[in-house]
Amino acid sequence: DAGDLLRNALLQLSKSDGVRRTIETAPVSRQVVRRFVPGSTTEDAVAATAELRMTNRLATIDYLGEDTTDLTQAIRTRDAYVHLLRELKRADLSQMGMGEVSLKLSALGQALPGDGAKIALEHAREICEAAADAGTTVTLDMEDHTTTDATLEALRELRQDFPWVGAVIQSYLRRSEADCRDLAHEGSRVRLCKGAYKEPESVAFQSSEEVDTAYVRCLKVLMAGDGYPMVASHDPRLLEIAGALAAHHRRDPQTFEYQMLYGIRPEEQKRIADRGDQMRVYIPYGEEWYGYLMRRMAERPANTMFFLRGLASR
Ligand code: FDA
């Protein structure tokens, strides 16, 4: 169908060096990319964090580099995070979790043959030590459904030493309401999102109505619980429901937060921060931005619309 055609075209483009060079050097598209990825260096990520702070927004920073099947690359990713955390601390942007980091275990070696899970966990642990030293936190991104159990297991292990490590739950997965119940305990930081991967019907709701109502069910569990919900969505209806549930449970604004992606609905981000709620922005940075944007769009045709809408929106 049309979705498959678009997906295949985007996946082809994501592999083409010629197209990559053209996109990287064309002034208009550079500007477009900058809207969603502030740059490729640590300095770019730190500068974006500093800029967000001027409007009272918090940050969570993702060093781009997924699906690592090479140990050298996994080590490079770990080192990039450790360096980033040191620089955030030096710039006084990490205290009290102002600038934290988001990690993908696949980028830290989870898919390496043999000891992948152990290697990724060890790398994550070293990043957590750097985060502890900087006075901030870490959130484990959630990837496709074949990795959910492994990621939740890594979360349990890391929380024994670093109880502030956060999890991500994707409302499109049928299992997620149960996972929310398990995670709605004191001190537990849980980011709730809809989910960005193309998943089979056996494990995931397919229609946006089902994904949205599942999101609300998960929100109810998290807001009623004792944990720290992180409401990651740009969807006005879901944001409104989250606010109503927080009020219903008499939650102090310091006991939950909203999260959005860098470059998406920036005016709404500022409005939420201005009214006294916590607003955290997810900043992806690094050399791998081209693959990041293309793959995000190829995984789900809806993601293409998502970024295109971001260009037109305020
Ligand atoms: P959706 O894309 O369904 O849009 C709903 C409505 O929101 C639209 O109808 C429109 O009104 C409004 N809207 C959306 N985009 C807009 C735009 N660009 N401009 C204006 N209005 C817009 N996924 C994952 O699988 N694992 C993860 O670890 C993470 N992590 C993560 C962190 C953070 C901080 C965020 C915000 C998101 C993620 N995601 C994620 C991605 C997430 O799963 C999802 O794909 C996107 O957030 C898009 O879903 P929305 O809830 O924003 O709504």
Put the structure in a nutshell.
Helix content is 54%, strand content 13%.
Description:
The chain has helices spanning 2-15, 17-25, 27-36, 42-53, 71-90, 116-134, 148-161, 176-183, 208-224, 236-248, 266-274, 289-299, 301-312, and strands at 58-63, 99-103, 138-140, 167-170, 189-193, 228-232, 257-261, 279-285. The chain has one domain: TIM Barrel, CATH 3.20.20. The longest helix is centred in the N-terminal third of the chain and has 20 residues, at 71-90. An 8-stranded parallel β-sheet has the order 3-2-1-8-7-6-5-4. The model has no long low-confidence stretch (mean pLDDT 91). The two termini are 32 Å apart. By secondary structure, the protein is α/β, with parallel strands linked by helices. It has 13 helices and 8 strands. It is globular and about 55 Å long.
Strand-helix topology:
Layout: H1 2-15, H2 17-25, H3 27-36, H4 42-53, E1 58-63, H5 71-90, E2 99-103, H6 116-134, E3 138-140, H7 148-161, E4 167-170, H8 176-183, E5 189-193, H9 208-224, E6 228-232, H10 236-248, E7 257-261, H11 266-274, E8 279-285, H12 289-299, H13 301-312
Helix pairs in contact: 1-12, 4-5, 5-6, 6-7, 8-9, 9-10, 12-13
The structure holds dihydroflavine-adenine dinucleotide.
Dihydroflavine-adenine dinucleotide is lined by residues 141-142, 168, 170, 191, 193-197, 232-236, 259-261, 264-265, 282, 306, 309-310, 313.
